[in-house]
Amino acid sequence: MSIPKEPEQVIKQRDGSVLGKKTILKSDHFPGCHNKRLVPHIDGAPNYRKANSLPVHGVAIPTIDGIRNVLKHIGAHMNGEQIRVLWINLREEPVVYINSRPFVLRDVEQPFSNLEYTGINRARLEQMEDRLKEDVLMEAARYGNKILVTDELPDGQMVDQWEPVSHDSVKTPLQVYEELTHQYLVDYERVPITDEKSPKEQDFDIACSVLYVLGRATFFLPDASCHFPKSHMACTLF
Q: Which InterPro entries match (predicted)?
């Protein structure tokens, strides 16, 4: 199938189980996301920070290279200091990596607003991400192995563009971290928390139970959106 001239046509014709009509894939990296006052600056990992002397780190959702850079910085490479990291992803929205960049599902009419799935658990969310990946691959097959994505410019303008994809270039977050375990000492957990809302008791229970099994020396690395409140959850555990 030839590529439609107007992106609006593609968005209206979407019929995936997750990537459906009037939904877009918005890049999760945008100019306003980066707080340049935070140091050190780690490429591909916006808003990286550490909680003073505690083994607690925070970061906005990174690119795949950004994840590697953070793990190297902490010393989690198998050939490095061999520090084991517990990476907890707190995103509640479905995320998919395309060509190493994270994209999040959004409503085309409200691209700056999170889609809330309050109460969703890890299993359901990761099932959505599996289906989202399949939706991306199926849609790309219609348009010459390209998928329409949306980027945000420094002035806040939204721009649609075609991203080339292959089966190996589209990954769920779980797939990304599973592949990284071959090079890094990293354990992965997913605790979906609604943005700008306090974690529930069971969210702390999940984190504490994993920390208990892995050991207190493990670094706790919340992975949230470009906002900071979720990272405060980690500090209360130490």
A: Prot-tyrosine_phosphatase-like, PTP
